Amino acid sequence: MIRSFGISHVGQVRTNNEDSFAERPEMGLFAVADGMGGAQAGERASRITVDTLVERVRAAGPDAAVEELAEAVREANRNVRADAESSPEFSGMGTTVVAILASEPRASVVNVGDSRVYLFRNGALELVTSDHSWVNEVGRSLGLNDEQLRSHPYRNVLTRAVGAEADLEVQMIELDLEAGDLLLLCSDGLHGVAAESVLAEILARPAGLEEKGRALVDAVLERGAPDNVTALLVEYVPS
Q: What is the DSSP letter of 131?
């Protein structure tokens, strides 16, 4: 059995929320997308992406696996690019996306960009996905430390995003789930503001998913919340 709770907040600086998420426990599908682009383009790109994932996985049926989920992301990429070409105001729009497809006792994970999936198991927090960002793929290899990376002019540059290129490479991961596993899908408005130690402390609390989800957002709001923040918690409870 899968339990879940999702929450999104505009933050304390932005005027609109460009994050979107999909929470479909009956399908085992959960996704978070963090859009980018002028005007309403970012939220449009993220919404197109999560809607495409829902439609594609629904069409694939109960036998959908990681390959179908990855192809759904590629289809979302085509849809976002086509929509961007329809109007100058949407030109250049794009989005990150992380998604999981849970089918007892496994979870398929896909990722593009710097939104993340974490696994909280037996009191330990583990990052499942890899950020497709200049910081992670270039900056760290150059030996720059965290302080230098936080102020680097390329700190917000992504190396992959839905909508950016015609040919999109999608990270695919498969996890074996254990009783009590808790998965956290989140935008960088969460993990880029609250330290992983803070996330782990909140997830370890003897509380329900909704209370934990709201506490994650509150932790970011207490730190100024310079970006939109989205957290989607997915708990595996074997039937």
A: -
